[in-house]
Amino acid sequence: MNSLLVIHPYKEAGVWMFDDPRAGLVREPFVSGADVIIDRMVAHIPEAEAGVTIYFSATPFPGCEHEFAWRREEYDGNWYYSDEYDLEGWLCPALFQYFEQAPPRLYVQVKPKIV
What we know:
Order of helices and strands: EEEEHEEEEE
Strand order of the largest sheet: 1-5-9-6-7-8
Oligomer: single chain
Number of helices: 1
CATH class: Mainly Beta
CATH architecture: Beta Barrel
Radius of gyration: 13 Å
Strand content: 35-45%
Structural class: mainly beta
Number of strands: 9
């Protein structure tokens, strides 16, 4: 399993979502606060709604900009907290397409999507 993972979220009809055919995910939405956190993380990226690249890992990596701490499990998903934004976001069970169990911390870097 890779330790540095990547997805390419985009916003459609006001909803942040992503596709990852290798994981069997199509139009997988971010909801319950995760969407608000993404809005904050991409605020500095022009035309972010057309798509961004998000690198993420359970361990810190060079260039990671954001850190999220695991809070609790709920509805088969997991809540993560951002000190930076003082917000919680829920990650659905799709998280387990990338990790065997919910990591205690998630480290994230967001960049413009290169097409």
